[in-house]
Structures are given as C-alpha cells and as structure tokens.
Write a structure and sequence with these properties.
Order of helices and strands: EEEEHEEEHHEEEEHHHHHHHH
Mean pLDDT: 82
CATH topology of the largest domain: Transferase(Phosphotransferase), domain 1
CATH architecture of the largest domain: Orthogonal Bundle
Distance between the termini: 28 Å
Structural class: alpha+beta
CATH superfamily of the largest domain: Transferase(Phosphotransferase) domain 1
Number of strands: 11
Length: about 325
C-alpha cells in the first residue's frame, strides 16, 4: 500500500505539500509551495521502488534516476517545465519541476467527445507544431533524449496558449551502448500510444521514431476523438485501426496520410525524424496520394517477416493475453 504525503508535510524544509495531483505506476505527483521563493508553486514527482527488489537492483534504479534527473535539469525549452531540484528521502526519490497550470489535451479531447464534436484540424496542427519543436529539441541533445510517453494526458495547454510536455518519468538519454539503462524504471509507455519496439528497449531498437509513433497516435486521438488501438492489437487485428478520415471526414487527406505514416508498425517505415514528419504535415494534399489501409497491413506483414524481434514481442504479448484470459479460469 502506497503511503502518500499529506497537505502541510514539508520536504527539504522547503517544499510544502498542498495536495495530490496524480498517482500511478511507480510514481506520485504532488502540488507544493516553495517556501524559499514565495509565491512559486512546484510539481514534485515522488518515485518509489517496487517491494521485494534486491539491494543491487534498487541501487541500479536509483543510479538511473539521478542520471535522468541530471539530464532533465540541463534542459531549457519553452515547451518543457523547468526541473529545478532532485533529492532522496526515506528511500524515495523526488524530482521538482515547475507546476504547469491548465488542461491537458486528454481533458480537452474528452470534452469535445462529450459534446459530440471534433477538434478543429487547424487548432490541432498548431498544437502539433509546438510538440514537434519540443521533441526536436529533445532529440537534438547529445546524447538524444527520448520522452517515451507522449500522449494527450502528458501535454498541458497553458492559459496563454502554450503547450508543455509533462511527466518525465520515462525520459531517458539515448545511449544504446550503456547497459546500465534499465527499462524497468522507464517502463514501456502507455499502451495505446507506445510502439512495439519500446517493449524490448534493452535490445537497442528505440530512437526518435519511437516518440514519433506516440505523437502520431496522440494526433489520431485528438482528431478522431477515439483512443487508438495498441500496437499489439494492430498486430493481431491489422484492420483495428480505421483510417482517420473514416472516423472524421473533415480531416484532410494529407493529414490522414501523415498520421498513418507516424504510426507505421515498424520504425523503418516511419519518417526518419520529427522534423521530417512535421514538414510532411505542411505539405500539399496533392503531393502524395493517400495510402489505403491494406498498404499499411502489407507493410506490417513484410516488416514483421524481416524482423523477428518485433514479431516475437507481439506474439509474446498475445500469448500473455491468452493466458490472462483463459489460464487463470481453472
């Protein structure tokens, strides 16, 4: 059972807890007042380890936390909350960043769905440009930094109209040659938005195109109002992902095409970078014909045939789903 901090509790004799923002997985986020900088509010992410870990593994997790926290503290971009502090207390690690007011894009999408309307493509494209610029900045770091959990709930729209990418629990410096990077700490992202390769990250298959898949799935959700099927579900039932225009006829052919390009099941079939994909968004609807879903299905089949590791991940997940469905009933 997770024991949460209470309003009035103080961390480091500086951060006074106001309340709980959210909790789940391996972390909890609190709203806190900064007693040193009066009037400043912060979001404090508390990261706790799962019970039963060996001392060696716990030490590795914490080492990775400090590595990620120091990376985040060096980032400076208007599309990111500024990380100002990180520390440990009572076997828990804390990350302090600016509190970002406003709604997240999931709340905005859900509100539109309740009102039986679609979000306007022009507005979503303005949002996408901001997210693309932020991700391009992250991927341009040395080494590149992946967000690894881009989704509508992790994008905040501030009162002045600026978007901020939040929840950095899964951010990691991309270093395929560093075996100390632990996927257990970073997780695999959120199911409807995570590409298959993110579940075997220790094999070194994730790169900027993994964030691109998540961004494409995010845009799909915003423009159709529907949560996209997971990459695993698409492997089992390729037709489970309708074309965006089938759901929302107001989406332009070019926008529908680039969304599906970002969500190509195999990374080699996606644009090479966020910047390249962003340029495709602003291309003419007549520059390339709209691809139909069967072409996507064929790409999926051929890609999986050429890449055993991706097929193996999907099959393993399918087997796990069958076991959870039927194996536990006896």
């Amino acid at each position: 059972m997770t024991i949460h901090l209470k309003p009035g509790d103080c961390l480091k004799d500086r951060y006074e807890i106001v309340g709980l923002i959210g909790s789940g997985g391996m972390g909890t986020v609190y709203l806190a007042n900064d007693r040193v900088l009066e009037g400043r509010q912060t979001a404090i992410k508390e990261i706790f380890l799962q019970p039963g870990l060996s001392d060696e593994l716990a030490q590795s997790f914490r080492k990775q936390f400090y590595k990620e926290a120091s990376t985040l503290a060096r980032l400076d971009h208007p599309g990111l909350p500024k990380v100002s502090d990180y520390f440990s207390r009572d076997e828990r690690d804390y990350l302090v960043m600016d509190f970002i007011p406003g709604q997240n894009l999931l709340e905005i999408a859900n509100e539109a769905r309740r009102e039986a309307r679609f979000l306007e493509q022009a507005a979503v494209m303005r949002w996408v440009d901001q997210i693309c610029n932020t991700l391009t900045y992250l991927h341009a770091q040395e080494p590149p930094v992946l967000h690894r959990d881009v989704k509508p709930a992790n994008v905040k729209l501030t009162p002045d109209g600026r978007l901020k990418l939040v929840d950095f629990g899964l951010v990691k410096p991309l270093d395929p040659n560093d075996p100390s990077t632990l996927t257990g700490l970073q997780g695999a992202g959120s199911l409807p938005y995570a590409p298959l390769e993110q579940y075997v990250d220790h094999l070194g298959h994730t790169d900027a195109r993994s964030d691109l898949y998540a961004l494409g799935a995010t845009v799909y959700h915003l423009l159709t109002g529907n949560v996209p099927p997971s990459a695993q579900e698409r492997f089992i039932v390729p037709e489970s992902l309708p074309s965006p225009q089938e759901v929302n006829p107001d989406i332009s052919p070019n926008m529908a095409r680039v969304i599906l390009a970002a969500m190509a099941p195999h990374p080699k079939d996606r644009p090479a970078s966020i910047a390249e994909w962003q340029a495709m968004i602003h291309g003419s609807d007549n520059t390339m014909p709209m691809e139909h879903e069967p072409a996507i299905d064929t790409s999926l089949t051929s890609s999986l045939a050429e890449n055993w590791w991706l097929a193996g991940v999907a099959l393993a997940m399918f087997a796990a789903a069958l076991w959870m469905t039927f194996g536990g009933s006896g």
